[in-house]
Amino acid sequence: MSRKNKITLMVMVLIGIAIIGYSMKDIKLSVLIHDFFTIDPWWLLIAFLCICVYLLIEGVVTKVLVSNRVANFTFKDALRVPLVEQLFNGITPFSSGGQPGQLIVMLQTGIDGGRASSVLLMKFVVYQAMIVVNFFISLLIGFHYVATKLHFLALFVLFGFLIHFFVIVGLLMIMYWPTFTKKVTKVLFHPAKWFMKDEKFYTTREMLYDKIDNLFEESVRIGRQPMLLLKVVVLTFFQLLFYYLIPYFIMLALGYSNVNLVMVVSLHVMIVMIISLFPIPGGSGGAEFSFESLFHSYISSNSKLVLAMILWRLITYYFGMAAGAFALLLKPDKVDDSDEQA
């Protein structure tokens, strides 16, 4: 990890501490400590296991996609990919560093850059598609609650849905209509010429064209293997399900056993969508505010609400970054060009 990334990581931890401190401003520390020691450790352990399973399944997805074309790609290296993704998602605005971070990890193993990019693009397409599907279902279930209780958050929810929807539409256009997509890219990217040198502009545009070609070629290849695609879709669905269940088990750990499972999961899906709109790494500030706003009706105690938010952020955000930092220290297992499969 570069010195700049280390500094960013420390800054994000300090911002998190400051936000937690601000959330506790009206709560006695003694009350918070008392609530902490009344937590059911088994339900909390299940919540923690959910994030572990979430990361393990993404590791399985990575291995499935890579092993289909490259032999001797170990599960250890496959698991490093989502862990490092968590780290760079957490320290970059709009989670923009996740994809490059994954690519670096795969290049370290000796996988060809074009092949690695294609695998990551296909994984991203499936992941985004499942997010949109899950979010659409959650809108049908929980949007009325959000719109009734919190009008302003409803706007964020809809805006987040539209962004992710257009992302997946754009990706599908690349996969099935690359020629037209290149024409659209040329038009939309043209204003960048006003701010970039000619050489940089044309180099960047060609890079975008290459990305479009890579995704199209990968989609054609995967399209010839429907069972592989179905396997990745099913794995990704369950991966996200485990992630969305985390707040439910945290609430059970705090003694709220009568909560509606479906509604809690739906609200968490919406929170994840809202977080993606905040430019601050990890959605810091927006994540905590959204969680407290949406779950206030379910967790009546202010101290338990803050405790639930802290536990949720530790599990879903800080644990991933810590695991990603550790994964960067692991030595990758190399694959040879001779091991590549057609």
Short description:
It is a multi-pass membrane protein. With 342 residues, the protein is an all-alpha fold.
Overview of this structure, please?
There is one protein chain. The protein is mainly alpha-helical. It has helices at 3-23, 29-36, 41-67, 75-91, 98-108, 113-149, 151-176, 178-189, 198-223, 226-244, 246-253, 261-275, 286-295, 302-329. The chain is globular and about 60 Å long. The two termini are 33 Å apart. Mean pLDDT is 85; it is low at 337-342. One of its GO terms (cellular component) is plasma membrane. One of its GO terms (molecular function) is phosphatidylglycerol lysyltransferase activity. Keywords: Antibiotic resistance, Cell membrane, Lipid metabolism, Membrane, Transferase, Transmembrane, Transmembrane helix.
